[in-house]
Amino acid sequence: MIKKLLNRLMGTSAEKPKFGKRRVAGFKEHAINLDLVDERARHVVLTLQERGFEAYIVGGAVRDLLLGLKPKDFDVATNATPEEVKSLFRRAFIIGRRFRIVHVVYGRGRDHEVIEVSTFRAYLESADAEQVSGSEKTSKKALSNVSHAVDASGRVLRDNVWGPQDEDAARRDFTVNAMYYNPQSQEVIDYHHGIEDAKKRVLRMIGDPVIRYREDPVRIIRAVRFAAKLSGLGFSIETKTAKPLQKMMSLLADVPQSRMMDEMLKLLQTGHAIASIEQLKKLSLQKGIYPLLDVVVDRSTQVFVELALTDTDRRVSENKPVAPSFLLACVLWSDVRDAWDRHLEHHAPHPALQEAIDEVFYSRIGDVSGRGKLASDMREIWLMQPRFEKRVGSGPFTLVEQARFRAGFDFMRLRAVAGEIPTELADWWEDFSLEDDGARADMLDLIKQSTPKVQRVSKHKTVVQNGTATSPDDGAPRKRRRRRRKPSADAPPHSEA
User: Fold this and answer.
1) Cα–Cα distance between 305 and 172 in angstroms, integer?
2) In terms of CATH architecture, what is 15-124+161-200?
3) In this structure, which topology does domain 201-311 adopt according to CATH?
4) 173 catalytic, yes or no?
5) Which residues on adjacent β-strands are paired with residue 92?
6) From the centroid of its chain, how far is CA 365?
7) How confident is the model at residue 4 (pLDDT cuts 50, 70, 90)?
């Protein structure tokens, strides 16, 4: 009776979930090009299989491979525990509390690659989980030794109970993300008609969408992201999956701010920022998911912000790095300018800009993990902007040597394209940054020669202008200063009256 009541309160079903029927699709059916599979992901799978474990490439990578696309990231699923996985690789790290996974790292520096390895998880009802009052932050002690826990709303806080593959598939969100590919046998394991839905170009939630969104409200954002990413291929969200999105959006208020920030950045920095904003508007989710995302959507039609979003999509498509600090600096630039104008009434320009930056960052970004690095990078970009207008002395030489110069310059270049500053200024700095010190000095000399000099002169100093000697008092009668006459030796001494 109690379990039924909990099921009703949490929106869960008392019926045993349908784990789906295992179907094996061979190469003739899926036609996946093995050349599109990352060699390091294949190495992880092979290493696990050689030690007697099951191992498959899983998730979005399989979906993309089915569609003939080369995945950017590869995840692996196995029946090996995180500790067993870690023991098989030289550079492997167990991360996460809510979901414990292993990062297997190949390479170093910018060229490093991470293969994420997860253990098959059991499908457990929320009513069977340990119920915790509060959140991850307020209930750390209660969650310390718990494998499966939910909060009062049914949101999963811990999910580290291992299980068979069919239950792991039922736990995944969309049917097209719940397939397992074995690159050794070239077989795809499909429990929920994922291959069929991929052919139909349908995004369908596994199980009851209301229950699945309650288990993890971030699935709302993931639905938008996948719909945006795959919209160009003709995908759309199934009606039953889309219907509860707006109603369930309020559950996102309980998700940790740092996770919400990460999910927002995935929406905006995976190459489909413009399409994601269009999907948010299409699904009536443009306001209320996350305050900072509301600002992005609201300003997405402003020329400067639209240019930044488009440029981010372009860089991702060209496999160039993108930084959240740059995009957010663009989105919040108008706030900084407005606050700067206000603070100029009471402070000198540089301190006023510093005050404005602090005000905007704390009001818009707030307290999220990684905020120190984010704040530092955004601050540097903003503080460089007035320095670009000062092309005198040693300042330009110092500026181009700064580590974040390129980000500051790209920001300034976008301002020029948006019509905020002259394009000639951006062109000059681009040329200056590419020249050697000698040529740079010549460029500064030309600027110095072309800039009218403002000369301060004394009251009666003669100044040469256009070859003619002039005086500030020309044309006005000059007063003669009367000299004080020195008293003679014979003069009587001064006496008081």
Assistant:
1) 35
2) 2-Layer Sandwich (3.30)
3) cca-adding enzyme, domain 2 (1.10.3090)
4) yes
5) 104
6) 12
7) very low
Q: Report the largest interatomic distance among the alpha carbons of the chain, rounded to a whole angstrom.
A: 131
Whether 262 is catalytic: no
- Angle among Cα 36, 316, 238 to the nearest 5 degrees reads 75
Q: Say what the pTM is.
A: 0.78
- Residue 439's Cα: distance from chain center in Å? 38
334-346 exposure pattern, b = at least 16 Cβ within 10 A, e = fewer? ebbeebbeebeee
Do the Cβ atoms of 79 and 53 come closer than 8 Å?
A: yes
Distances from the Cα of 192 to the Cα of 5, 216, 310, 365, 407, angstroms? 29, 20, 36, 40, 45
Q: How many CB atoms are located within 10 Å of the residue 63 CB?
A: 26
The model's confidence at residue 297, banded by pLDDT at 50, 70 and 90, is very high
Q: Give the tens place of pLDDT for each residue, 314-343.
A: 999 998 999 999 999 999 999 999 999 999
Instruction: Assess whether 445 carries a catalytic annotation.
Output: no
Helix axes of 273-282 and 303-317: crossing angle, nearest 10 degrees? 120
Could you say which of 38, 64, 75, 159 is catalytic? 75
d(CA 419, CA 426): 11
pLDDT digits (tens, 9 = 90+) for 78-112: 999 999 999 999 999 999 877 889 999 998 877 78
- What CATH code would you report for 325-450? 1.10.3090.10
Q: Which residues pair with 458 in a beta bridge?
A: none
Compute and round to an integer the Cα radius of gyration of the chain. Answer: 33
Fold match, 201-311 / 325-450 = yes
Question: Do residues 4 and 14 touch, judged by C-beta distance below 8 A?
Answer: yes
Q: Of 38, 64, 168, 173, which one is the catalytic site residue?
A: 173
Residues whose CB is less than 8 angstroms from the CB of residue 235 and which lie 6 or more positions away in sequence, other chains included: 201, 202, 203, 226, 227
For the chain, the structural domain boundaries read 15-124+161-200, 201-311, 325-450
Is beta strand 187-190 parallel, antiparallel or unpaired with respect to 202-203? unpaired
Q: HEC string of 360-381?
A: HHHHHCCCCCCHHHHHHHHHHH
Q: What is the pLDDT of residue 459?
A: 47
